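Supplementary Text 2. Reproducibility record for the structural model of the 110-residue chain.

All settings were left at their defaults, and a single model was retained for analysis rather than an ensemble. We include the record here because the model underlies the residue-level annotations in Supplementary Table 4.
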Amino acid sequence: MAQENDIVLIHYEGNPLTFARIEEIQPDAKPDWYHVKLLMLQVPLQIVTWILKDIYINGEAFTMNEKRMRLEMIVSPEKNTQTQNSQKSTIAPSSKGGTKVIPLNDRRPS
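Retained model, structure tokens:
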């Protein structure tokens, strides 16, 4: 189950709508239901509380005001070593053991 501080992508009617961070998950009086406090990561920032079943927090689709909704947990992509090496190519070691900055102006497309 998603936990506090996890980032989720909220889908609305099958389309990605916005990101949110789970601020708090508190049990509801009904079994398997929770009060989920979400910080909507948009401008302006807004905090909402949804009452959801545990399966909905885990990504099952549900309806809200007769509209299909779904939460998708976001996992940070792993950094690829090849990508890191290509990004570091703007700084090259000099012959004296230090580093020098290579200007990017000459790399701009025409």
